[in-house]
């Protein structure tokens, strides 16, 4: 019998090459005529933000720009953005996952007045929020369709706000915005999106459901075909479109069937060593898959032919191991670093990472195999 489940996603999606050129006319009916545009310094340097602000102003929208988003945004950045959002009629994010996450919380906190500290956790956020439109410029986080925002608290720990209130009113996906992304960024964000789909499919969360699994399979099929092509040909619009769509589908999947130990072990790497989130995931992914496959190989065996269709048929245990190895091979082919030591992480630091990973209880409970501190340390040692 099918278990009861809930599936939520962004209520409206618009996808198409060139849609960002219509950002003013598309977003004004939703966000009104005074918007906060949230982005980061790297996006400012591309000139794409200027085109967006020009389009908004041409549509009669007054724009306040917040361009100070950092990777793994700290609480201070979120609070600054929320302060600037007060008085706005809506919030638009233009950038990668960090910009989208900051915009979600700025829209929420500016309208609700709720202290950020009270919003952390699952279902603790209180509305209302300002109207919100998210425009991703990387194919990785799927944040445009997830009810999640991740914030760095203190020196290195990450905490999440999880609430349907964070789902935007509209996700605007324009693959032209991802053309020309550097190969390393394309690879890391692409592996990140694939991790979302893999963990959503295999999650033992009670809300793992047929819709999320179907979306995960479709996402992985797309990205398995397109990732290396997008890395090698940065201006290939078809590959960029496939990656952006795949990332979004994976986002819908894990928004409802949550991720697990790969993310839990990746967060301390990013928090302590400022390793980009997608790369942190890539570094631990094959080792978590091998760890899980020892007791729960079925999900990974089922995914293997969808992602790597050219491989021959094989038994469940062998297929699960092959899936882990093939994901590692794909990461390497894309030019990503393969070991924690390559990131300047000393072996002596691994016990501290393992200890910190235990704080990610929200994620660890979804893993197919229990992960205690000793197991986490072994995974980090394998990844070193």
Can you tag this structure with a few keywords?
three-stranded mixed β-sheet, 11% strand, six-stranded parallel β-sheet, Rossmann fold, 2 domains, globular, Dehydroquinate synthase-like, alpha domain, 384 residues, alpha/beta
- Number of helical segments? 16
Outline: globular
| Percentage of residues in DSSP E strands | 5-15%
Strand ordering within the main sheet: 1-9-6-4-2-3
Short synopsis of the structure:
This protein has 384 residues and is of the alpha/beta class. The chain is 52% helix and 11% strand.
Please provide a written account of the structure.
- This protein has 384 residues and is of the alpha/beta class.
- It is built from 16 helices and nine strands.
- It folds into two domains: 13-178, Rossmann fold; 183-383, Dehydroquinate synthase-like, alpha domain (Up-down Bundle), CATH 1.20.1090.10.
- Helix content is 52%, strand content 11%.
- It has a six-stranded parallel sheet, sandwiched between helices.
- A hairpin with a 3-residue loop joins strand 7 (148-153) and strand 8 (157-162).
Furnish the topology, listing elements before pairings.
Elements: E1 13-15, H1 23-31, E2 34-38, H2 41-46, H3 48-58, E3 62-66, H4 75-85, E4 90-95, H5 97-112, H6 116-119, E5 121-122, E6 132-136, E7 148-153, E8 157-162, E9 170-173, H7 183-202, H8 210-232, H9 237-256, H10 261-273, H11 277-293, H12 298-307, H13 316-333, H14 350-357, H15 361-364, H16 373-383
Parallel strand pairs: 1-9, 2-3, 2-4, 4-6, 5-8, 6-9
Antiparallel strand pairs: 7-8
Helix pairs in contact: 1-3, 4-5, 7-8, 7-9, 7-11, 8-9, 10-11, 10-14, 11-13, 11-16, 12-13, 14-16
């Amino acid at each position: 019998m099918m278990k009861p489940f809930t599936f939520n996603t962004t209520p409206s999606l618009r996808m198409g090459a060139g849609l960002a050129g219509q950002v003013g006319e598309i977003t004004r009916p939703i966000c009104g005529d005074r918007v906060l545009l949230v982005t980061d310094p790297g996006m400012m340097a591309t000139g794409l933000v200027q085109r967006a602000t020009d389009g908004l102003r041409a549509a009669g929208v007054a724009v306040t720009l917040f361009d100070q988003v950092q990777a793994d945004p700290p609480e201070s950045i979120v609070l600054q953005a929320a302060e600037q959002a007060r008085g706005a009629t809506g919030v638009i994010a233009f950038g990668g996952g960090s910009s989208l996450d900051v915009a979600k919380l700025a829209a929420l906190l500016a309208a609700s007045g709720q202290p950020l500290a009270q919003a952390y956790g699952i279902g603790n956020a209180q509305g209302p929020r300002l109207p919100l439109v998210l425009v991703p410029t990387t194919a990785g986080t799927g944040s445009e369709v997830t009810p999640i925002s991740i914030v760095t608290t203190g020196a290195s720990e990450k905490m999440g706000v999880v609430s349907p209130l964070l789902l935007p009113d509209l996700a605007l996906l324009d693959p032209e915005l991802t053309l020309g992304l550097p190969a390393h960024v394309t690879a890391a964000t692409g592996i990140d999106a694939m991790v979302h789909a893999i963990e959503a499919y295999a999650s033992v969360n009670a809300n793992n459901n047929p819709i999320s699994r179907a979306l995960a399979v479709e996402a992985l099929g797309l990205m398995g075909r397109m990732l290396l092509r997008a890395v090698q040909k940065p201006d290939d619009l078809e590959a960029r479109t496939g990656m952006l769509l795949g990332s979004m589908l994976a986002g819908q999947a894990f928004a409802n069937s949550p991720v697990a130990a790969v993310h839990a072990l990746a967060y301390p790497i990013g928090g302590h060593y400022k390793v980009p989130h997608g790369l942190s995931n890539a570094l631990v992914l094959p080792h978590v898959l091998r760890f899980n496959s020892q007791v729960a190989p079925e999900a990974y065996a089922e995914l293997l032919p969808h992602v790597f269709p050219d491989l021959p048929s094989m038994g469940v245990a062998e297929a699960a191991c092959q899936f882990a190895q093939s994901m590692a091979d794909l990461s390497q082919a894309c030019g990503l670093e393969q070991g924690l030591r390559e990131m300047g992480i000393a072996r002596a630091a691994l016990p501290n990472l393992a200890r910190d990973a235990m704080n990610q209880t929200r994620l660890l409970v979804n893993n197919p195999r229990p992960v205690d501190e000793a197991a986490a340390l072994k995974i980090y040692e394998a990844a070193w």
